[in-house]
Amino acid sequence: MDGFTQFALSVLNRRKSRVGYALENHLEYIFTEFGLRYSRNAITENKTNPDFLFPGHKEYHDPTFNPLKLTLLGVKASCKDRWRQVLAEANRIEKKHLITLQAAISLNQTNEMQANKLQLVVPHRLHDSYSEPQRKWLMDLESFVAWVQDRQ
To answer: Which SS3 state, helix, strand or coil, does residue 53 take?
Structure first.
């Protein structure tokens, strides 16, 4: 029975990993189509590698580049408690962004995200699964792309 359970878990984990990579690939396509400059999985302090850095790793590692023009986007198909991983990436960037496909994250978690300067980006069609106070704070992908374009 233990062997079967281990096998089932490994299959499930591979499936979840593929979903995450597929989401990153779709986002990369969108960012390229909109002409955004970015680096994918660039290495920052302590060998962390954020999913996307805007405008890129060269600007991030240039101490003369204004850190207020840097943007980090973490990608998590489902957040759960893993959203905190994004906080440890890219120390030069104070306010970080996280895109997820997870609907209806609890008010307590989104309050904690706000307190830790993490902006949640959720597809607009999922906004209705969040409470009214949360919806006022959420960002959708279109708004995120426009915001990054303005900064570049």
So the answer is: strand
Q: CB within 8 A of 7, min separation 6: which ones?
A: none
Average pLDDT per run of 10 along the chain, which is 152 residues long? 55 54 91 96 92 96 96 91 91 96 93 96 95 95 97 92
Position 132, amino acid: E
CATH topology of domain 17-151: Restriction Endonuclease (3.40.91)
Q: pLDDT at position 20, please?
A: 64
Torsions phi, psi of 123, nearest 5? -50, 140
CB half-sphere exposure, 62, CA atoms < 13 A: 11
Closest CA to 125 of 96, 104, 149: 104
Q: Give residue for tokens 């003369």.
A: 64
| Residues carrying an active site annotation | 60
Rounded CA-CA distance 75/49 in Å is 12
Torsion of CA 151, 102, 77, 13, to 10 degrees: 160
Domain boundaries, the chain: 17-151
